[in-house]
């Protein structure tokens, strides 16, 4: 049996035929597919949220996770700070440079915290008004 390497085969571009056909899809099929995809993403987000809530319920696991993260970040000459904002009752995670004490990254960012606070103020004023 004689096997020739691929680079020695005499293939010319005209030997290859490409047939392309436009596939038409009805808008309803596309809409159904996008709705299914969105539903799956939302379901995944709910599962992730439930998982995070379960982990937050166990303070020992949370402390262990934070210590592990701090150890890994310390190799980069950075520190991890986690604070709870009293106004929005949510954790704020900051990565800080050790030498300069400069915040490198914050989750959620300040502008998001301000948006949440303003939304809470507006909702509070809407629901606190007497009819």
Automatic annotation (TrEMBL):
Presence of the UniProt keyword Electron transport in the record: no
NADP found in the keyword field: no
PANTHER family membership: PROTEIN FLAG
Membrane-spanning ranges: none
Alphabetized InterPro entries for the sequence: FlaG, FlaG-like_sf
Keywords, alphabetical: Cell projection, Cilium, Flagellum
Name of this protein: Flagellar protein FlaG
Superkingdom: Bacteria
Pfam entry (one): FlaG
